[in-house]
Design a protein that fits this description.
Layout lengths: L1 E7 L6 E5 L7 H12 L5 H9 L3 E3 L3 E5 L6 E5 L3 E4 L13 H7 E5 L3 E2 L6 E4 L18 E8 L1
Antiparallel strand pairs: 1-2, 1-10, 3-6, 4-5, 4-9, 6-7, 8-9
The chain binds zinc ion (ZN) (2 copies).
One zinc ion (ZN) binds next to loops.
Length: 151
């Protein structure tokens, strides 16, 4: 089961399915994300943290982020940093569940999502902002269908 939003522009026919994925993450996807973090694609700080802490994990939930400055939006991983309380490494192929975070992990730091258009901070979108999305192509209001679910 997944969740997402279908956004559509009546003016220029721009259309996109914002896929927020399956909720928690598959081991393969997660390893790819960690590799990107270690390669520094999300900046030097999380890369360094991962290299120095075997028990480091991130929240790999996909979420929709919004820039209230320029109305840009994008789907990205949450990327909040956590660390295992005994700094124990996640066993290969294990799939972290919400209760693992609650029981075994300590919150370290939230990731700052930066707008790739204007460089300001983006925040996790609020329900009320879903109706204010504007078309990245032509700047007209977008039509949003929420809560798309599929198996
Ligand atoms: Zn448009
Ligand atoms: Zn922006």
């Amino acid at each position: 089961m997944g969740q997402g939003y279908l956004v559509k522009c009546r003016n220029c026919n721009y259309e996109e399915l914002l896929n927020l994925g399956v909720g928690m993450f598959f081991p393969g996807e997660y390893r790819k994300l960690i590799k990107m973090i270690e390669d520094g694609e999300y900046g030097a700080e999380p890369a360094e943290y991962f290299l120095n802490n075997p028990g480091a994990v991130v929240d790999a939930q996909l979420e929709l982020y919004y820039c209230s400055e320029c109305h840009n939006y994008e789907v990205d991983y949450n990327l909040s940093l956590y660390r295992h309380k005994d700094n124990r490494e996640i066993s290969n192929g294990y799939w972290l569940k919400q209760e693992d975070y609650d029981r075994e992990y300590v919150f370290v730091k939230a990731y700052k999502h930066i707008c790739n258009r204007c460089g300001k901070h983006m925040h996790k979108i609020r329900e009320s902002e879903m109706n204010n999305l504007v078309c990245p192509e032509c700047g007209k209001p977008l039509e949003v269908s929420t809560g798309v679910m599929w198996d």
